[in-house]
Amino acid sequence: MAENDSSIEEGYVCDPHKETCRINPIVFYVSLVIAGVFVLWGAINPESLNVVFNAILGFTIDTFGWLYLVAVLFFLVFAVGIAMSKYGKIKLGKDDDEPEYSNFAWLAMLFTSGMGIGLMFWSIAEPMYHYLAPPVGQGSTPEAAELGMRYVFFHWGLHAWGIFTLVGLALAYFQYRRGMPGLISSVFHPILGDRIHGPIGNAIDILAVFATIFGLGTSLGLGALQINTGLNFMFNVPIGGTIQVIIIALVAILFTGAAVAGIEKGIEFIAKWTVYFALGLMAFLFIFGPTTFILNMLTSTTGSYFNEFFTMSLWTDAIEQKGWGGSWTIFYWAWWIAWGPFVGQFVARISKGRTIREFVAGALLAPTAFSFVWLAVFGGNALGLEIFSGAGIADAVNTNLASAVFVTLSNYPIPMITSIVAIILVIGFFVTSADAGTFVLGMLTSNGSMEPSGKVKGIWGVTIASVAAILLVTGGLTALQTASIAAAFPFMFVILAMCYSLLKALKEDHS
Question: What class, spelled out in words, does domain 19-313+335-509 have in CATH?
Answer without folding.
Answer: mainly alpha
